[in-house]
Amino acid sequence: MDTSFTAEQNEIRRTVREVLAKRCGPEDVRAAASTAAGYDPALWATLGGQLGLPGLALPEAYGGAGCGTTDLALACEEVGRTLAPSPLLATAVLAAPLLLALGTDAQRAALLPRIAAGELTATLAVPGAALATALALAGDNRGDWAGGGRAGGVQARRAAGTWRLYGEAAQVLHGHSAGLLVVAAHAGGFARSRTLLFLVRDGAVRTRQTALDGTRPCARIQLRDVEAELLGEDGADVAVALASVGDRAAAVLACEAVGAADRVLERTVEYVGQREQFGRPIGSFQAVKHRLADVYVRVRAARSAAYYAAWAGGKESGGAARRGCPQALSAGGGSLEGPCRETDGQVGGLALAQALQALRTAAAEGIQLHGGIGFTWEGAAHLYFKRAAGDELLFGPVHRLRAHAADAAGLFERGEVAV
C-alpha cells in the first residue's frame, strides 16, 4: 500500500501554503472576516480563479481538475492552518458535490463550470440548525428535519408548474453572499412526504448572523413565496446523496481542523521558547514539555485519521466508507492505491470528531501557555479556539459524531451498556 503523496499533491500543498503565507496573516484574517462579504474577494479570486481550488474534485468535463477528495482535503488543510475566510468549504465541499450527484445534465453544464472557475459561489441551506443531521453526521437524515407535516422548516409547494418555497433556514455558511442556494425543503404534505433539494438564486431575504467564529460567516435565510428550481428529478434519493456528501465533507473538515491544530501548536512551541520566567524559557520546564508532547500526539493521531478518511472518501463511489486495508495511513502521507472492502462505517464522522477534539485541545493549551495574551484580540490563539468551538456547533458535537458512528456500525448490541 503506497502511503506517500504524489508530486501533484505536494505541489498543491506547497502552492496554497505559499499564497496564504503572504496574504493571510492574523491581521488579514480579522480584516477579511469583518467585511460585508465575510472574506477577501481578491484572495478568493486567487484561490478560485487562478489556483482552481473549487474545481479540484470536479470532473474535467465540467472545467474541474478531475482530482479526488484527497487533493481537495490537502488544500483545505492549508487553508485551515491560516483560518483563511473563504467560501471554499460551502461551495466546493457542500454544494458542488450535490449538484454533481443529483443535478440534471442541463443543471450541471450551467453551474459546475462556473463553480470550477471560481465565478459562482454556492452553499447548502437546511432548516434550523440541522446541518449535521442533514449530512447524516450526528443522526439519521431520513427524519423530518426539513420540516414535516404542513408547518415548520422549509415547505415546498408546486403550483402551475412552478415550485415555491416557504420557511426559514439558519446558520447557513456564507448564506448572505453565496450566488446560489441549495435549499433542502419538505414537499408532499402527509400524503407523499419527502425531502427535496431546490436551487434558489433570487428572492430570499438574507441576514448575516453574529457567529462565535468570525471566519465562518453564517446567515439566516427567509423564504417567503420564493420561486425555486428543483435540483435533479423528483424521485431522487436525497437522503442518500446528502449522507454521501456528508461523509466526504467530514473528511475534508477533519483535514482542515488538523491544519489549524498543527499551526496553533507551532505557534505555541515558538512562543514558549521565547517567553522567559525565572531566568529561563518556559519551554524548558518539564511540565510544559509534557503538555506540548500530549498535544503533539493528539495532532498526529488526528492527522492520520483525517488522511485515511480523505483517502476512503476518494476511493468509494456511493458514500460508504472503507475498512479492511492493510494499514491505516501514516501521519506523514495519504494513499491513492490499495484494495479495500466497503462497509457502512462512518469514517468521515469519526475522523472529524478526533480532529475537532485535537484542535480544541491544541487551542486551549495554546491559550494557557501564552498567558494573559492568549485570549486577547492582539493574539491569534483565540481565533483557533473559536474555530474549534464553532465547528462543533455546526457539525458536531464530538460525542454525537462518535455516538452516531457507533450506532451506524452496530458497535453495541441492544441492551449492551458501554462503560
List keywords for this structure.
two-stranded antiparallel ribbon, Acyl-CoA/acyl-ACP dehydrogenase, Acyl-CoA_Oxase/DH_mid-dom_sf, Butyryl-Coa Dehydrogenase, subunit A, domain 1, alpha+beta, 47% helix, 11 strands, Butyryl-CoA Dehydrogenase, subunit A, domain 3, 419 residues, flavoprotein, 12 helices, globular, 3 domains, AcylCo_DH-like_C, five-stranded mixed beta barrel, Butyryl-CoA Dehydrogenase, subunit A, domain 2
* Proper CATH architecture of the largest domain: Up-down Bundle
Which band does the percent of strand residues land in? 15-25%
Largest sheet features: 5 strands, mixed, barrel
* E-strand count: 11
Task: State the strand order across the main sheet.
Answer: 2-3-7-5-4
Q: Give me the Rg, rounded.
A: 21 Å
Helix content: 40-55%
Shape: globular
Indicate the structural class: alpha+beta
What does this entry look like structurally?
- The structure is a single chain.
- The protein is an alpha+beta fold.
- It folds into 3 domains: 7-120, Acyl-CoA dehydrogenase/oxidase, N-terminal domain (Butyryl-Coa Dehydrogenase, subunit A, domain 1, Orthogonal Bundle); 124-236, Butyryl-CoA Dehydrogenase, subunit A, domain 2, CATH 2.40.110.10; 239-408, Butyryl-CoA Dehydrogenase, subunit A, domain 3.
- The protein is built from 12 helices and 11 strands.
- The chain has helices at residues 7-23, 26-33, 41-50, 69-82, 88-102, 105-116, 131-134, 238-272, 286-315, 347-370, 381-395, 398-408; strands spanning 122-125, 154-159, 162-173, 180-187, 194-200, 205-209, 218-230, 276-277, 280-281, 322-323, 341-342.
- It has a 5-stranded mixed β-barrel.
- Strand 6 and strand 7 form a beta hairpin.
- Helix 1 packs parallel to helix 4.
- It is globular, with a radius of gyration of 21 Å.
- The two termini are 36 Å apart.
